[in-house]
Every structure is written in structure tokens, then in C-alpha cells.
Amino acid sequence: WRNDRALPGVDLPQTVSVHAAIREICGGEALLLAVPMQALGGVLAHHSEIGPGQPLVACCKGVDLASLRGPVALILARLPGATAAILTGPSFAADIARGLPTALTLAATAEGARLQDLLSTPTLRLYRSDDIIGAELGGALKNVVAIAAGTVIGAGLGDSARAALMTRGYAEMVRLASALGAKPETLAGLSGLGDLVLTCTSAQSRNFRFGLALGQGTRFEEGITVEGVATSRAAVRLAAEQGIDMPVTAMVDALASGRIALNDAVGQLMRRPLKQE
Fold first, then answer.
1. CA pair distance 43, 36, nearest whole angstrom
2. Nearest-angstrom CA–CA distance, 157 and 176
3. Of 19, 215, 216, 217, which is most buried by a Cβ count within 10 Å?
4. What angle do CA 16, 18, 19 make, to 5 degrees?
């Protein structure tokens, strides 16, 4: 059988079953939470049947706007002491569903080795990490940079501009993540740099496509979740709290909310004071 709306042309394994109630799937070796980031808090709040003994793996990327928490932090706020993890890195659902070779990062509070072994397959290779903050922020912040990259391509500003935004955007990712307790080397791995490269160069990325539409001045596809928009707003707030300069992120937030025109945004970035890299 298939889900042609989400995964067109992909035959789902016969072992996949559909349940109407979440209680019917609780109690297993792991529960994967594949919901949009801004919906995760509501899912956890409205499903008390998810107990603290249930290992939970977040499959979303972003920062919760209400609490400024990442997925694992949001889980632990609802279920203190739970085994919580995030599965993140450079991947598209369609590639994984088709069995194409993919490598991801799994960062967990506990049972990391067991979950790594449980979720790895011959075509899905997981690398384990104990840097949850780094894994969360790498996957979240790269979506903001992907919007910026898509915008310059959509506006016809060229690949050199995209490369500049990717590089300077990555520097912003490292600055904020480090200030919040992440290891810089985590951002250089699959969950940061790897995911950044993928989403800034492929039209399969919803964030990149959203940026393309921004740059072209066209309407984006309705009903498509674009995590980078909410993340840009959250990142601007976090950066202000930490006293960190994030000009690319701030411009994405301003563009996405319609507070600035594209030409003005480009001009402001290019006229910033010159400095040492």
C-alpha cells in the first residue's frame, strides 16, 4: 500500500500498520515523533498515555516558539527523566523510504547505543552523539540558512551569493549553538554542516523552495510546513538573549514576515561594516 500524498510512488512495507489511537502503539522499543516542530508540544500535552518509561525519538527540526526549546528539551519538560533522543541530519523522507543510502545523527539522553542499533538499517547508517543541544540546533538553524539560499537563487543573484550565505550562515549557527552549550564539532557533522549542504542545494527541501518563492515573488505551496520560518523568529530571540549578532538569520526573519523588501535586505547585508573573518 501507499501514501501518495506524502511519498508518491513509494510502496510501504507490509509491516507498517495504521492506528487511530496513540495508546495502541505505546510500550514498544521506541516511539518516533514525526510531527511538525510547532505541533510537538501539543502532541505531548494532549497524550498523557505517553509515559516516562517510553523511549521517545523526535524526528522534527526546529525551536518551539512558545518555550524556545528544542525537541528533546520539550520532551523532557513534559516527561522528566524520560529516555529522549533526536534523529537528525541530511535526509529527505523519500530517499529513506526508497532505501537510498543515508547517514544521520542520533543524539540521546540514554540508551543511545541501543537506539542506534535498533534504528539503523543496511541503507540507513546512524552516528551516535551525546551533544543533544548541538544536534538540535544544527538541524533547526540550517533551515533558516536554506531559506536564505533559496531566496538568492530565486532572485537570480547567483551561486556565489548562495555560497556566501551558506558560509556566513554556518558561522551564525556555530556562534549561537556554542553560546547555548553545544560543541562546535557537532555543528561540523551530519546534523549541522551535512544537513546545511543538502537543504541549501536541493529543491526537494521545503525551506529552500520557500526561499525560491520569496526570491521570485511568487506564492508558496499551501499546506506545506516550512520549519525555518518559525525557527528564524525563535533564533532572533535567542540571539538577543545571548548578545549574539546573527544578520543573515535576522534578514530571513524580516523577509519571511514581510517587514523588508529583498533588495533592501541584500543592500543592508552587503553594506555591513567590513571585518576580519
1. 10
2. 27
3. 215
4. 135
The catalytic residue positions are 142
Q: Give the separation between CA 255 and CA 252, rounded to whole angstroms.
A: 5
Architecture of domain 140-270: Orthogonal Bundle (1.10)
Assess whether the region 22-132 and the region 140-270 belong to the same CATH fold: no
Query: 132-154 and 71-78 are packed helices; what angle lies between their axes, rounded to 10 degrees?
Result: 140
Per-residue pLDDT 10s for the chain (277 aa) are: 888 888 888 988 888 888 888 888 888 899 999 999 999 999 999 998 898 889 999 999 999 999 999 999 999 999 999 999 999 999 999 999 999 999 999 999 999 999 999 999 999 999 999 999 999 999 999 999 999 999 999 999 999 999 999 999 999 999 999 999 999 999 999 999 999 999 999 999 999 999 999 999 999 987 788 999 999 999 999 999 999 999 999 999 999 999 999 999 999 999 999 999 9
| DSSP E strands, the chain | 31-33, 56-58, 84-88, 102-108, 124-129
Q: Which of 59, 121, 61, 52 is nearest to 87 (CA)?
A: 59
User: CATH assignment of 22-132?
Assistant: 3.40.50.720
